[in-house]
Structure formats: structure tokens, C-alpha cells
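Support reply, case 0932

Customer input (verbatim):
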Amino acid sequence: MNRTVALLLSGLLVLSLSACSVRQQLIRQAADEMSLQSVEEEDIGLAREASAFYLKLAESLLRSVPGHVALAQSVTSGLTQYAYAFLSNEADRLESHSLAQAQALRERAARMFERAQKQGWVALTLRHPGLASQLLSMDLKALRLQPDEVGLAYWTAAAWGGQISLSKDIPDVVADLPLVVNLATLAWQTNPAYGDGSLASLMGTLELARPGGSPSRALAYWDQAIEISRGQSPGPFVAKAEGWAVEQQDRTAFEAWLNKAIEVSQGKRDLSSQIMRERAVWLLRHADDIF
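Our regenerated output:
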């Protein structure tokens, strides 16, 4: 009798393990497929609506496979872009009409950036236990990213930087800036050309944001981003205008770089170019308020 029970239990255990294994395999296959999907839509309004559905679905799947780097990158990048394009930018446009609405949108954007950062950070720390302490030690030579981790590190740093930029009255959040700078630097050391210059552009923004940052070094990063993209990406021109030109109170450079961003984005229907073009147009319209 005992032998029979033991055999039955053993059989049930094997079936259970097999079912679990099959389920995990199916989940991983779904995560692989989901990570390859993106919201390719040139209409900004429709892209906003489609993004919300995709992100909720992808986040739900990521909870089952938190260490899936490609899916974590997709979720982190999607949430970050949503926070910037549809919340933070909209807050700037609303500010002259309603300070309360603008503040509410910025608070929501900060939460969205934080949500993005956490998704990326979980996946990175599963791959690299003790990553925070290593980044704080600033011993970046002892750290190495795999090529497939660079995008995840970039988007995690971008989300974290976005959260900090909207949380300057929260010291605990601002105190994480050195971690953000070192995470972006780690990605940049691995692949400085990542994202057709997007990573180099982020390095410029972080260089200017960090205490003791060098404006000339930030400018060099942005120029590198323009060189990598062969001058065909509007993002670095907008970053130079909002960063260096405003910091130096150089209105001539500000207007020249924004007009260049508008020029290179003409005819491009991808969402990023449209968002940067809209940002550049809005900044030019409000130049009198900035200078």
C-alpha cells in the first residue's frame, strides 16, 4: 500500500513539474514575442491610446518573468516615453492656462517615470546582484554589461532621470542622481553609439544636471549624439537648446538648434520625431518666457 501511494505521489509530482515547466516555457515564449512588439503608429493620439493597452498587457506578463531583459526593456522604454510625451510635455503646455492641472500631470508623470525605473531596475539587479552598491562605489571598471543589457540600462537611467527632474522638492529622490549618472555611464562605456545617439544625448543631459557638471562636456556629448545620428535626429538639437543654450542664456543658439530640430524632423512620421518637432515648436513659441 505504501509503495503504491509512493508511486502515485511520484507520478503526480512528475506531472506537476512537467505542467509547471510547460507553463514557464509558454510564458517565456509569450514574453519573447511581446518584447518584439512595439506601438508603431504615426498618429500621436492613436499611439497614446494603443500604448496604454500594450503597456498594461506587457507589465502583466513581465510579473511572471521579471528577469526577461528584452521585455523589461520594452516595458521600461514604453512607460518612459509615455510619461515624457503624453504627460510631462502636456503639463508644460497647460501651465499657462492652469497651474493645478499642470502640477497634477507632472505628479502623474513622476509616478510613471518611477514605475518605469522600477521595472528596469528589477531586471538589471536580477542579472547583477549588488548593482546599487557597485554603482555607488563608482568602480565602473569592475562592472560589465552584456550587449543585450545596454538598452535596458539606458531606459532605466532615462526614466530615473525623468523622475528626479520632476521631484526636485523630494531630497530622497534627488539623492539618487549619482546612481543614475553611473548607470548611464556604464551603458555608455559598453556601447556609446546606442540608440542612434540617444545614449550620448542622455549623457549630456545628466552631465549638466549633476552637481559640478561641465557645460562644455555636456555640449561634447550632444555633439557626439548628432555625429552618431549623422545630424538626422531632432532629439540632440532639442536637448542642446533646452540644456546648454538655456543654461548659458544664449537665445541665438537656442533658436538655431530648435529650428534645426524642426528641419531634420520634416517628413519623418515616426512618433519620436513628431514629439521632438512639437517640443521644438512649443519652445520657440515660449522663448520670451525662457529668456
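We compared this against your earlier run and they match. Two observations from our side: Residues 29 and 210 are 41 Å apart (CA to CA). The longest helix spans residues 2-36. Please reopen the case if you see a mismatch on your end.
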